[in-house]
């Protein structure tokens, strides 16, 4: 099991399933432009161009028809409907999640409902945690930020939206100062210590930055309040493992197995436990 394989925000297990069933999240590396490797910004045209190059001629024709329908759509409702169709194509036929996320976001902006904006924002936020390319991570963080901000205009009192927006700064490489995001999340956590989403996000942030004791403190609080939270159990095991505490790492890996009904994942966890036992 690779480091940080399970370190996700929000519905991370859902994201794992999406990747497992839908396949690649990005086109093959050789289809991305060289500036990506040099940490340059990536825009949607780069992503769509690389993604379209993987399509069959039949798929390209179908996609072109949908793109033409967007231009012809004379109402926001019609345009949003076509964007939903394009998102479904990229997810179900092409099995590429970045174009799916983009068109889901485009539809959400036209629909302008808190529910659709929040879903699209969280999809970007959760998916960017799987990205190693700095340019892609920054693009996804920027898209998520825009969607969270639009959702907050509709519901400015939502703590979960504030945490999501702060997470964009924390995990998305969109600011030179990640503390900007941490402060937004801490504001919620300090005002409402029972907000487990805030505690979890701060715990993940501490883990990513190597502050293992703080991560364990936050994650332990979450799992105490949510004893069936598989995601947090695995993160706790990972935190203890990185700290060199094999006993507690094994404890939480074993606990996580009880909530997983997948022989392949069981096998991976057993391998990790065997290594920890030496």
Task: Describe the fold and architecture.
Helices cover 73% and strands 0% of the residues. The chain has 15 helices and no strands. The radius of gyration is 20 Å and the shape is globular. The chain has helices spanning 12-22, 34-37, 44-52, 57-72, 76-93, 97-111, 114-128, 134-154, 159-171, 179-191, 196-208, 212-225, 230-243, 246-257, 263-277. Helix 9 (159-171) runs parallel beside helix 11, helix 10 packs antiparallel against helix 11 (196-208) and helix 14 (246-257) packs antiparallel against helix 15 (263-277). The model is unreliable at 1-39 (pLDDT under 50). It folds into two domains: 10-174, no CATH class; 183-278, Serine Threonine Protein Phosphatase 5, Tetratricopeptide repeat. It has 278 residues and is mainly α.
Encode the helix/strand succession as letters.
HHHHHHHHHHHHHHH
Q: Based on helices, strands and strand pairing, what is the structural class?
A: mainly alpha
Assembly classification: single chain
How can the largest sheet be summarized? none
Name the poorly predicted regions.
1-39
What would you report as the Rg, rounded to the nearest angstrom?
A: 20 Å
Proportion of β residues? under 5%
> What's the pLDDT, averaged over the residues?
85
What's the total helix number?
Answer: 15
Task: Walk me through the topology.
Layout: H1 12-22, H2 34-37, H3 44-52, H4 57-72, H5 76-93, H6 97-111, H7 114-128, H8 134-154, H9 159-171, H10 179-191, H11 196-208, H12 212-225, H13 230-243, H14 246-257, H15 263-277
């Amino acid at each position: 099991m690779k480091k940080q394989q399970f370190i996700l925000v929000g519905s991370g297990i859902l994201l794992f399933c999406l990747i497992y069933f839908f396949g690649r999240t990005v086109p093959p590396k050789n289809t991305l432009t060289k500036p990506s490797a040099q940490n340059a910004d990536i825009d949607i045209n780069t992503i769509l161009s690389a993604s379209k190059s993987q399509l069959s001629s039949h798929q390209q024709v179908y996609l072109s028809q949908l793109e033409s329908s967007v231009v012809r759509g004379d109402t926001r409702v019609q345009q949003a409907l076509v964007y939903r169709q394009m998102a479904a194509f990229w997810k179900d036929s092409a099995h590429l999640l970045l174009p799916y996320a983009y068109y889901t976001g485009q539809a959400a902006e036209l629909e302008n409902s808190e529910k659709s904006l929040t879903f699209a924002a969280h999809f970007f936020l959760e998916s960017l945690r799987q990205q190693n390319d700095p340019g892609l991570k920054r693009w996804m963080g920027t898209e998520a930020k825009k969607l969270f901000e639009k959702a907050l205009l509709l519901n400015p009192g939502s703590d979960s939206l504030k945490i999501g927006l702060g997470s964009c700064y924390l995990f998305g490489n969109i600011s030179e100062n990640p503390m900007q995001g941490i402060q937004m999340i801490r504001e919620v956590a300090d005002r409402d210590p029972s907000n487990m989403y805030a505690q979890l996000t701060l715990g993940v942030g501490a883990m990513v930055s190597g502050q293992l004791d703080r991560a364990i403190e936050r994650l332990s609080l979450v799992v105490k309040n949510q004893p069936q939270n598989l995601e947090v159990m695995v993160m706790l095991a990972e935190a203890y493992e990185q700290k060199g505490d094999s006993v507690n790492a094994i404890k939480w890996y074993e606990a996580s197995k009880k909530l997983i009904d997948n022989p392949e994942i069981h096998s991976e966890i057993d391998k990790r436990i065997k290594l920890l036992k030496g």
